[in-house]
Each structure stands twice: as structure tokens, then as C-alpha cells.
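Thread: Modeling a multi-component assembly for a lab meeting

Hi all, long-time lurker, first post. My supervisor asked me to bring a structural picture of a complex we are working on to next week's group meeting, and I have zero experience with this. I have the sequence lines for every component (230 residues in total). Could someone generate the structure of the whole assembly? Inputs are pasted exactly as I received them:
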Amino acid sequence: MSRIQESVIVRTVVRIMVPFILLFALYVIMHGAGGPGGGFQGGVIFGAGIILYAMIYGIDAGKKKISDALDRILASTGLTIYAGTGLLCIISGGMLLQYGAVPLLPDNPAEVSKYLIDFVEIGIGITVSAVMISLFFDVSSPESEEAEE
Amino acid sequence: MIWVLDITMLLFLVVCAIAAITIKDLLSAIIILSAYSLIMAIVWVEMQSVDVGFTEAAVGAGITTVLFIATLARTEGRSED
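Re: Modeling a multi-component assembly
Sure thing. I ran the full set together rather than chain by chain. Output:
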């Protein structure tokens, strides 16, 4: 444990800030269609929030929140959401990610498109944040742990 | 368009880029690179490209710095050449 990790000020600030960082990340993901932001940026901010927590409270505490197995599941879930939405559009008779083709609301394809764009953004966000977190854990894990694996 | 601000930031970008590749201490190089990313994000937003500026601020100044420092913590921290 370094001196920064023992500092009460840093620990308290991180504990207060992390929920707001995660909330802001969700805001950025959900507003990707209408303004600046999107799945990638929101996912990166979400990952940064978890990384900040893991940096100050220790890698082990971070891995308790998001384990390696959960990380892998999340990364593939996001990819499945993205590819699944694209395939759904192809099955419905359109091109890849041509949202209007999906017959959820037959009389209003624009509305379907709006919801499916958000759905795809959520998928991108999940994958990006999971990959960012696993990158950080891989780079910063102590040496001794790797020898055991 | 505030062109004085634009020219100042672009000059600062060049200074940061040259400093980042000439400095010997790698931790200083990482911090300078993160300052470069932050200025670059402001330049992107100034050029009406908020989305790209957002990405630059989140990835360039945020995650990349953390990953670089985490990598540096496992190495010697000084450039050989």
C-alpha cells in the first residue's frame, strides 16, 4: 500500500466521486444518439470510474467488484447485443443495422430505430468498459500473481 | 473563432509534442503527453467537433495515461537512448 492509498482525503473523495462518474457514464451512453457522446466514450468513462476505485482501494478490491470471469462475460455480452441487433435487422429483411426494417412497431419505423440505436449504444458501452477494466487489471496486477497462474 | 487562442494552443501542442519525445524521464513524458491530449481535446471542441474532443479527453487524457503509468511502474522508468 502506498502513501496515496492510505490518505483519508483521497479515499473519501474517491468513494464519493465514483458513483457520480458511473452515473455520468450512463448519461453519456444514453445521449449518444441526440448529442455528443455515445457508447464508446461512455464505456471509457465507466471503465475509468472502476479503474479509479481499483487504483485507490487496491486491485484486489476492484477484482472483488468486477472479477475476471464477469469481465469476460460482460465483454462478450456487449458484443452479442451489438451483433444480435445487426443480425435482427438482416433477418427482418434490411441491411446490417438498418433499424427501420425491424417490425416491432409496423406503423412507426422511426420510433423502432430510436430505441434500437440506444440498445446498440448500450452494447458498445458494456464491451468497451469491460475491455478497459480488463486492460488495466492485466497491466497492473502484481508479478507474483502471474507466477502462480 | 478566437484565432489568438487557436494559435496559442497549436503552438503549445507543438511544444508539448517536442518535449514528450526529447525528455529522458519517462514519467515526465507521460504527463506531458496527457497535457498534449487535453489541449488537443480543447482544439477539437474549438473546431466544432465535440464528439471527437470528448473521445480525446476520455481516452487520450484519461485511460491512456493510467495504462502508461501502470506499465511504467513495472519497468525502469528511464529511456536508454
